[in-house]
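User: Sequence recovery, please. Input:
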């Protein structure tokens, strides 16, 4: 081979969102799989305050902070030479003081591609993706638009509706409106929708801030909780005897080489009434049923709707698409799309691909190659006036 040097993947983890700990767990698995796939790994940690860590052992430092063994840094963006010299994004990113430049004389290699294993705001919402595109760096996963749209469930629902994808009835309210007229808002929601209802922040992941309400009093409390996390709140009708179905998507939209692939469906059997944060990550009694208990027609419908949802947001690389199946009418509803799903030991995304015939190392290898493919395609976009 003309160049036997392995591709160097910078793995971003941690971050400022409430899913910081989930990101750490996902990143451990991703880095292990990348090494098994033959890649060189450069760990890059981000503290809750936004400080970038590249020297010593970023994973150990962030894990210690989570455990309360180290204080959190209060200066989120200052550049004072404390970051070490073992990772590099690009000269533009270096000039922002996030990471140092490569040092060829000292044998420090540049990073070839970034794998942003960041969940929730400040990582999965287009913010980091925009920075990486400004730095002209390849990165795994969806671009700025898809990441931002998928994070904002209210906007995503509008796009899905335009594509004719079936969704439950819902309303969007704002924190400002709730603060001004809470009683009238509850009355309007009760008249327009029927209990039970689910209330969730529009811009958050992993079911954080999500509640089920059966009475006006519970609805008020649920909206108050959701308002702690976002300025936009979604209130939607519950699906009778709902079954939670998920599929994984792998590929780039509008690729000349291949169409995005969709895994076999899986089903969530939550340990709690619904699949909230505790049921997902803290209570090991939740079960993942792979494959889901669906007939051939239902499997085909799930996969087709997932592919259409992926195209609706102009997805790239990966996504997990979640559905709700009415246990009475067997009607399938699109729930949401997640552009950087969990990669923990119990996460559905890698498990579905493993059941579909793609191992964890093969999966991360495919994601890196998709990132490089999309980056190469972006290089054909002229930035000069013709």
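Assistant: Recovered sequence (386 residues):
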């Amino acid at each position: 081979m003309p160049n036997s040097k392995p591709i160097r993947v910078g793995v971003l983890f941690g971050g400022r969102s409430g899913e910081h700990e989930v990101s750490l767990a996902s990143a451990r698995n991703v880095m292990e799989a990348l090494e098994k796939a033959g890649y060189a790994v450069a760990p890059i940690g981000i503290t809750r305050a936004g400080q970038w860590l590249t020297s010593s052992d970023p994973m150990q430092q962030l894990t210690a902070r989570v455990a309360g063994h180290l204080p959190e840094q209060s200066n989120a963006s200052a550049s004072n030479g404390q970051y070490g010299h073992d990772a590099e994004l690009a000269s533009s990113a270096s000039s922002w003081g996030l990471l140092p430049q490569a040092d060829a004389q000292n044998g420090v290699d540049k990073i070839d591609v970034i794998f942003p294993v960041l969940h929730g705001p400040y990582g999965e919402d287009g913010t980091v993706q925009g920075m990486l595109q400004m730095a002209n760096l390849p990165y795994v996963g969806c671009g700025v638009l898809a990441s931002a749209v998928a994070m904002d469930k209210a906007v995503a629902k509008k796009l899905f509706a335009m594509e004719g994808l079936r969704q439950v009835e819902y309303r969007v309210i704002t924190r400002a409106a709730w603060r001004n007229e809470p009683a009238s808002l509850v009355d309007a929601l009760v008249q327009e929708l029927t209990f039970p209802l689910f209330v969730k922040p529009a811009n958050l992941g992993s079911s954080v801030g999500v509640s089920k309400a059966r009475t006006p009093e519970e609805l008020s409390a649920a909206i108050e909780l959701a308002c702690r996390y976002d300025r936009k709140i979604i209130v939607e009708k519950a699906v009778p005897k709902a079954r939670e179905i998920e599929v994984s998507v792998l590929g780039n939209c509008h690729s000349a080489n291949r169409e995005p692939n969709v895994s076999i469906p899986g089903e969530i059997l939550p340990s709690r009434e619904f699949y909230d944060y505790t049921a997902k990550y803290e209570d090991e009694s939740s079960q993942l049923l792979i494959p889901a208990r669906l007939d051939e027609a239902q499997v085909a419908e799930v996969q087709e709707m997932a592919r259409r949802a992926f195209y609706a947001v102009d997805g790239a690389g990966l996504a997990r698409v979640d559905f709700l199946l009415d246990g009475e009418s067997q009607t399938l509803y699109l729930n949401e799309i997640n552009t950087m799903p969990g990669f923990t030991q119990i996460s559905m995304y890698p498990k579905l691909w493993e059941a579909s015939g793609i191992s964890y190392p093969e999966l991360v290898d495919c994601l890196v190659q998709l990132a490089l493919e999309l980056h190469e395609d972006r290089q054909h976009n002229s930035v000069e006036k013709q």
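The longest strand covers residues 243-252.
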